[in-house]
């Protein structure tokens, strides 16, 4: 492995191609390699040191009409998976630590032939039918989040499970797949807007096309052109003289020192009074494919709860949001906030309204528009915000009136983070929600987070704030929200025909049947609500700390969300 120059200065990784891909040698192989970016490093630390924490998982079901045998169908899936890995190369990459520098690097082995590519893909593809006749999705989802880490970054940063097929009406079958990825290679937009739709397209390709694709796409030149850059290398440079650039960063750090943090919000009312110190073990039901050893048990439980709004309830929300000029995304934030307020009110009915704290909803930001990235999302790119705050409104107010007030507030606050950089040059605006300032603040925060999350023996002492620490008094949000918007154009039934003509062309025709769920292995105290829009209504999938929140309490949240706008009648939660 080539050694890299130490970059001890806190600006040493900002917009200077520090994380550029290079060709080199690793373990006797020709490889492409680059250091992990700061955001990528934070998620890598999550997974490596905290039992797979933050690893991303999605379950998608396809409806398939086929005249293939079981073995031919498996081969088609393998070929599609192999092609997907070649097109989105972080799926086939690994992460290794350089023993000389202690830095973690992405490593992509350059394959020598088609057989090697297929062999490596096969090693990350598991057919559950080899071991189990049936797999219940709810049960399976709990197990994949509460056993030893499924990803081994030394071997692969992704793994695909194919569930036993089951018959559907009309002579088709349901083919369900679980994709698990390390968070340092993807975010919600990457998986839902790019990888999953592309996999469906590949499954519908013929065997000949897929074999041809492997031969052409594995070439070093084709792989090189697909290597995704880190977001830190894409950040715009601060313009002007050396003195002006120094002034910009000095002011940025002082602004972080004197900033007024957002107000404290009320604590998630679903939390237990006392958080459990250790994760509960679960029965080794899937021991042939999952690791149940006590030595590899994650430090905490991560559970999931889903809420589904009917078409009618969704239409009502959209109508109300539109009436006050707000977006559907803001409607999701407002609805989650309303549900939490009602649950908090039921938990503590005696506090005066004047003494109620606001709802605080934290959320990640897609930074790509901030630095002019217009390509398809193909790697993890995230920045973080202070979140939004919504005033506490009591449940005895009309539900529609509450919603319109809150969705207007949510829309106004979210809109501040939807600006684009006016040019590729960062001129140094100090508006708190200006893209230039968000990019700079995000970089500084990433430096601090990457350092803070390292084990003690890996800490470097890097400190961009010096004698002026950032005024980030950590105040936990009521909950987190991650909205990916509507997936109707990317993952929706009806895109591919399942008629006999389609089957005769390639031996198989597949279309989306259901996007079943998505989530992450939760962090301590986390209650992270993923939300998206479908043809059938709004969907919410929550990853939460099972040591802090009981499953029964999470079901209270589900009922509150689903019933609040159903038939115009709200439901009072009971804890």
Q: Give the CATH class of one domain.
A: Alpha Beta
Strand content of the residues, in percent? Answer: 15-25%
Question: How many strand units?
Answer: 18
Main sheet summary:
6 strands, mixed
Total of DSSP H or I helical runs spanning 4+ residues: 15
Name given to the CATH homologous superfamily of one domain: Chloramphenicol acetyltransferase-like domain
Mean of residue pLDDT values: 92
Q: What's the architecture of one domain in CATH terms?
A: 2-Layer Sandwich
Q: Poorly predicted ranges (pLDDT <50, ≥5 residues)?
A: 1-6
Kindly, what is the distance between the CA atoms of the first and last residues, rounded to a whole number of angstroms? Answer: 56 Å
- Name the overall outline: globular
Helicity level, as a percent range? 25-40%
CATH topology of one domain: Chloramphenicol Acetyltransferase
Secondary structure category: alpha+beta
User: Using only CA atoms, what is the Rg?
Assistant: 24 Å
């Amino acid at each position: 492995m080539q050694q890299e120059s130490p970059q001890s200065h806190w600006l040493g990784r900002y917009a200077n191609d520090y994380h550029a891909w290079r060709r080199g040698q690793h373990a006797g192989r020709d490889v492409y390699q680059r250091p992990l970016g700061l955001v990528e490093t934070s998620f890598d630390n999550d997974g490596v040191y905290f039992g797979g924490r933050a690893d991303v998982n999605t379950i998608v079901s396809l409806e398939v009409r086929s005249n293939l045998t079981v073995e031919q169908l498996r081969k088609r899936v393998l070929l599609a998976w192999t092609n997907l890995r070649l097109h989105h190369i972080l799926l086939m990459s690994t992460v290794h630590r350089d023993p000389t520098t202690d830095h973690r690097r992405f490593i992509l082995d350059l394959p020598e032939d088609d057989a090697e590519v297929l062999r490596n893909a096969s090693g990350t593809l598991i057919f559950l039918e080899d071991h189990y006749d049936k797999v219940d999705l709810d049960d399976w989802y709990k197990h994949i989040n509460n056993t030893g880490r499924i990803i081994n970054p030394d071997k692969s940063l992704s793994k695909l499970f194919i569930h036993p097929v089951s018959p559907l009406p009309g002579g088709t079958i349901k083919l369900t797949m679980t994709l698990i990825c390390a968070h340092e290679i993807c975010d919600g937009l990457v998986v839902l807007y790019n990888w999953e739709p592309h996999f469906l397209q590949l499954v519908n390709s013929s065997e000949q096309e897929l074999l041809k694709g492997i031969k052409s796409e594995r070439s070093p030149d084709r792989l090189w052109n697909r290597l995704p850059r880190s977001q830190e290398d894409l950040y715009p440079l601060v313009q002007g003289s050396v003195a002006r650039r120094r002034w910009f960063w000095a002011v940025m750090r002082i602004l972080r020192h004197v900033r007024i943090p957002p107000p404290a919000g009320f604590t998630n009312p679903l939390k237990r009074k006392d958080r459990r110190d250790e994760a509960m073990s679960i029965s080794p039901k899937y021991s042939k494919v999952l690791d149940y050893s006590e030595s590899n048990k994650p430090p905490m439980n991560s559970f999931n709860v889903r809420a589904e709004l009917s078409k009618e309830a969704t239409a009502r929300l959209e109508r109300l949001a539109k009436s006050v000029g707000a977006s559907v995304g803001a409607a999701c934030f407002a609805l989650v906030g309303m549900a939490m307020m009602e649950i908090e009110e039921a938990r503590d009915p005696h506090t005066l309204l004047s003494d109620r704290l606001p709802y605080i909803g934290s959320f990640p930001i897609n930074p790509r528009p901030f630095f002019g990235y217009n390509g398809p999302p193909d790697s993890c790119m995230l920045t973080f915000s202070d979140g939004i705050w919504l005033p506490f409104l009591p449940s005895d107010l009309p539900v529609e009136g509450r919603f319109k007030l809150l969705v207007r507030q949510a829309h106004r606050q979210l809109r501040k983070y939807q600006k684009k950089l006016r040019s590729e040059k960062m001129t140094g605006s100090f508006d708190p929600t200006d893209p230039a300032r968000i990019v700079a603040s995000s970089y500084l925060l990433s430096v601090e987070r990457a350092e803070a999350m390292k084990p003690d023996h890996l800490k470097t002492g890097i400190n961009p704030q010096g004698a002026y620490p950032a005024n980030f008094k950590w105040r936990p949000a009521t909950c987190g929200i991650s909205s990916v918007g509507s997936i109707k154009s990317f993952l929706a039934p009806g895109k591919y025909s399942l008629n006999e003509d389609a089957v005769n062309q390639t031996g198989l025709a597949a279309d989306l049947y259901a996007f079943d769920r998505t989530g992450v292995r939760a962090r301590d105290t986390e209650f992270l609500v993923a939300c998206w829009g479908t043809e059938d209504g709004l969907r919410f999938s929550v990853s939460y700390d099972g040591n802090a929140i009981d499953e029964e309490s999470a079901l209270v949240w589900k009922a509150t969300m689903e019933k609040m706008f159903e038939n115009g009648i709200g439901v009072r939660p009971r804890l």
